[in-house]
Each structure stands twice: as structure tokens, then as C-alpha cells.
Design a protein that fits this description.
This protein has helices spanning 9-19, 22-35, 44-55, 90-112, 118-131, 138-147, 155-164, 176-183, 187-197, 210-220, 227-234, 236-240, 244-251, 255-265, 313-318, 326-363, 365-370, 380-387, 391-398, 430-442, 452-461, 468-477, 483-486; strands at residues 39-41, 74-75, 82-83, 288-293, 296-301, 309-311, 402-405, 408-411, 419-421, 427-429. It has 489 residues and is of the alpha+beta class. Helix 4 (90-112) runs parallel beside helix 16 (326-363) and helix 10 runs antiparallel to helix 11 (227-234). It is flat and about 100 Å long.
């Protein structure tokens, strides 16, 4: 026997709801509704009617929705006969349920009205998702071209095997020798079929390396006698290192002529399968909305996409029947408690995200007013102390969730960044510093590219002290080559 810490199932469910983004949350709630017959989702039309009633000043609760068993029809579990006295606190359970349902509805009304989108907006959004279609893959395109080619019946199975080894970039992943060994097909037959496939669209497809890919494209365009073809064929290593003088000497040309040819080479496609890659566009639904009202910012949560649950009236009425067995009442009681916990967890999730969103807006006011350059350092510990939760709760609450601001839609984790102390004593986020470094590289003289040490000096003049290795790290993250590879002669 041993002691170990175990998260209770209810706590695990609560954490899963907090961490899940909107689409996953809806799936989790639907799963719970299927497993718990006591739960049901309030129809949208009924929710709108409730909102209209509340706007007109009438009570928000619907008597039929919040109906509870009368006190004079509760049951004695020992006799299973009607009794005038409530037993086993079931009536109190329903009273708490009624209060919880009212709180949940008030929470929706208070936090969602400024950003209510209505059924038309939801219909447009659904139409957008329904309109998305899947594209044709590179392999499917190549197989289709193979069917209309002049290949023999013997060559077609070989072509299918080769196409199956072409990756999404458009390159042949395996060597012909390896394919010959594993398939027991003669190397000469593989080479003939590969040559045919390399004539398919897109140009450069089924190449075994970048050099062959570029040469295939130049050959397809009839440019075998050009300077760029000779550079790719004979000086690929020097081209990669951008050694223009060495290439010029080898070809007997001026550096300017070589640079012009290299510029034409850069117009070729290094990844022939790029146009067939799946669409990487991500469609996100913001969890938090920040809108400017006068000189202030209003923070609301996206409650439109959160299911509104209640306990089914059918089972409430079932508890009022004098002939209901004790086992049925116990089963209903257990499911009601589970449903109450789920509803409370949803409410707590929304409130936690709202509180975190408000604190982010409070600390990042300059970002909202002026943009990315004014993003302030902020840690999850700082926000957790104000909100009154643990920092791991903040981490779960902002995971895979987005905030819509006047500056655009950002992942909520974007606002949490470490800081760099400036000479003036104020803090500056490393995201802002990285943007500043990118702007410096973008404005450099291509004939005299800036080194990492020169960037360090320029930042120091602005009151920002960074180590050279930190600048080099930022440069790598920005996909900027070292200065010796960026130089244009």
C-alpha cells in the first residue's frame, strides 16, 4: 500500500472545462448531456425570450423552468409514502439549484449583452464553415496525370510506388537504390519511370534534392543555356553561401551579372508541392472581447457559444410522484448533483476567464492605445495574485484561447511575456524588443548588412541592454541569416 495524490473526478472535469477552448468545450458539454439524462440545453428561442423578459423588467426565471417539488409532496425514504415534511434535504437541493440557475442566467445577461451577435451572425459564421472545401493533394494530382500519360501497364505500378514516396514538399524521399532494393524492381526501370513523373505538373516535382528541383524547372522553361542554369549546376554550394565573387570568377563574369542571375534563380519554386499543401488558416472564435467605449475599455466573454444548461423538469416532476422507487430517487439525486456541478463549473470558467481578461486589459492599456511596440512585461504570477487563483489556473484559462481587441485578435498567451529593463527604469517586453530588432534588420544597407554586435550597440543607444547571443537568438527566431550570408556585392 502507498499514499499518492489523486485528482477527484469532479476536479478533473472542472480543469478540463477551464482549459478547453470554445469548440472543445461544446463537445465536452454535449458528451455530459448525453451521459446525464437530468441535463438539457435551453433552446435559443427560449433564451431570447428570457432576455426580452429581463429587458422589460419582468422576472428572469420561468416558473416551469425552475419548478421544484412542493413541500407537501416530498417522500419519506423509509415508508415511500407522501409526507408533509421534507426529507434527506432534497428540497434544499432544488432550492440551491433554483438559485444557481438564476445566477447562471444573470451572468449571461450581464456579461454578454454588449457583444450579442444574434442568430444572423451565427448563421453567417456557420455558412462560412460549410463553404470550406478540401483541396486535392499532390499525390492525387500526380496519380491523375499518370492515368492520362503514355505509360505502359508495366510502368504504372512502379509509378504509383514512386508517387507514394513523394512528400508534401514535392521531393522524392527515398533514393532509387533503396526503392530498388525494397521492391526488387530493376534500377533502370525506376529511373525511366521517374523521368516521366518529373515531367508532370508542378515543375520540379519528384526531384531528389534542391539542385535537381531547380534544374528541372529551368529545363522545363528551356533555359539550359543560361547563366542561372550554370550557377545551379556547377556552383550550388557557393550559391548557398552567397559567394558572388567566387561564382563570378568561375564563370568569367562580373559580380553584377552573377547577382542578376541569382535574382532570377530566386524566382524559382524550391518546394514544388507548396500549392497543394493543406490550408493552414485557422478559424478561431475569441473567448474575450475588448471594445472601446469613450475613454475606457469594456471586457466581455463570448457566451454566445457556451451551452446554457438546466435540470430537466421531467425528472423534477418524477420526484413528486408518490410511487417513485427509492432507487430511482437516489439515481436522480446523484445525477442532479453532477449536473449542478457542471453548471457551476461552466459559470466559474466564464468568470475566471473574464477576470483574467480584465486584468490583462488593465495592465496592457498602452498596447490597446498604441500597438505592439507598447506591450508591457507581464507574468501569470502577477495576474494570478490579483484574480485570486493559482498561476497554473491562469495558464489553463488562457491556453488556446483568443482575445479580440482594437489592435486585432491575439492569443491570450501573447500578453504574457518576460521583460527587459531599460536605462530609464521602465520595463519593455521581449516581444517589443524583437519587433525593434526586426525593424533594424529591415532597414539595413544590403551592401553592408548589420552584424549582431552592431544591433547590440544600436539598442544600447536606445537604452536597451542586450547580450549579443540574445540578439542572435532573436535573429534566428525571425528567420534572418547571418550578416555574411545577407551581403549583396
Amino acid at each position: 500500500m502507498s499514499l499518492s495524490q489523486v485528482l477527484a473526478p469532479q476536479l478533473q472535469q472542472s480543469l478540463a472545462l477551464l482549459q478547453a477552448p470554445t469548440l472543445e468545450l461544446k463537445a465536452l458539454v454535449e458528451q455530459e448531456v448525453q451521459q446525464n439524462p437530468m441535463l438539457e440545453e435551453v433552446p435559443a428561442s427560449e433564451m431570447e425570450q428570457m432576455d426580452r423578459n429581463q429587458d422589460e423588467g419582468s422576472p428572469a426565471n420561468d416558473p416551469s423552468d425552475l419548478a421544484e417539488p412542493p413541500a407537501d409532496v416530498m417522500f419519506d425514504p423509509a415508508t415511500e409514502k407522501p409526507s408533509s415534511a421534507p426529507v434527506d434535504d432534497f428540497q434544499r437541493e432544488f432550492e440551491r439549484l433554483t438559485h444557481l440557475d438564476q445566477e447562471w442566467r444573470d451572468h449571461f445577461a450581464q456579461t454578454n449583452l454588449p457583444m450579442r451577435q444574434g442568430p444572423e451572425a451565427e448563421e453567417r459564421r456557420q455558412f462560412m464553415f460549410d463553404s470550406l472545401v478540401a483541396g486535392t493533394s499532390l499525390q492525387e494530382t500526380l496519380l491523375e496525370q499518370m492515368r492520362f500519360s503514355d505509360m505502359t501497364e508495366e510502368q504504372r505500378p512502379i509509378a504509383e510506388m514512386i508517387i507514394g514516396n513523394v512528400d508534401d514538399r514535392g521531393y522524392l524521399k527515398e533514393s532509387l537504390e533503396s526503392l530498388s532494393f525494397t521492391t526488387n524492381v530493376a534500377l533502370e526501370k525506376l529511373a525511366v519511370v521517374l523521368k516521366i513523373i518529373q515531367t508532370f505538373h508542378p515543375p520540379g516535382v519528384a526531384a531528389r534534392n534542391l539542385q535537381e528541383c531547380l534544374l528541372l524547372q529551368l529545363e522545363r522553361a528551356g533555359r539550359e543555356n543560361t547563366v542561372e542554369y550554370r550557377i545551379v549546376r556547377d556552383f550550388m554550394d557557393a550559391l548557398f553561401k552567397r559567394k558572388m565573387p567566387e561564382i563570378a570568377r568561375g564563370l568569367g563574369l562580373t559580380v553584377e551579372q552573377v547577382q542578376a542571375a541569382v535574382k532570377r534563380i530566386t524566382c524559382l519554386e524550391p518546394r514544388p508541392g507548396r500549392e497543394f499543401l493543406p490550408d493552414d488558416d485557422r478559424y478561431v472564435s475569441p473567448e474575450v472581447f475588448v471594445t472601446r467605449v469613450g475613454d475606457d475599455y469594456v471586457v466581455t466573454t463570448n457566451n454566445e457559444q457556451i451551452p446554457h444548461l438546466r435540470i430537466s423538469n421531467h425528472y423534477k416532476d418524477l420526484m413528486s410522484r408518490p410511487d417513485a422507487p427509492a432507487e430511482a430517487r437516489e439515481y436522480i439525486r446523484e445525477k442532479v448533483r453532477a449536473g449542478k456541478f457542471l453548471i457551476k463549473s461552466l459559470q466559474q470558467r466564464q468568470q475566471t476567464i473574464l477576470n483574467i481578461g480584465k486584468e490583462i486589459v488593465k495592465r496592457q492599456r498602452e498596447f490597446l492605445d498604441k500597438g505592439r511596440a507598447h506591450l508591457k512585461p507581464m507574468t501569470m504570477v502577477q495576474v494570478a495574485e490579483v484574480v485570486g487563483v493559482h498561476e497554473t489556473t491562469v495558464s489553463r484559462a488562457v491556453s488556446n484561447k483568443y482575445m479580440e481587441t482594437p489592435q486585432g485578435v491575439y492569443e491570450m498567451k501573447f500578453f504574457f511575456t518576460s521583460g527587459i529593463q531599460t536605462d530609464s527604469g521602465s520595463g519593455m517586453s521581449n516581444t517589443s524588443v524583437k519587433d525593434m530588432v526586426a525593424a533594424m534588420f529591415a532597414g539595413e544597407d544590403s551592401a553592408k548588412p548589420l552584424s549582431d554586435q552592431e544591433i547590440v550597440k544600436m539598442l544600447k543607444e536606445k537604452g536597451i541592454v542586450l547580450a549579443r547571443r540574445t540578439v542572435a537568438k532573436y535573429r534566428d527566431e525571425l528567420n534572418i541569416l547571418p550578416s555574411n550570408l545577407r551581403k549583396v556585392y
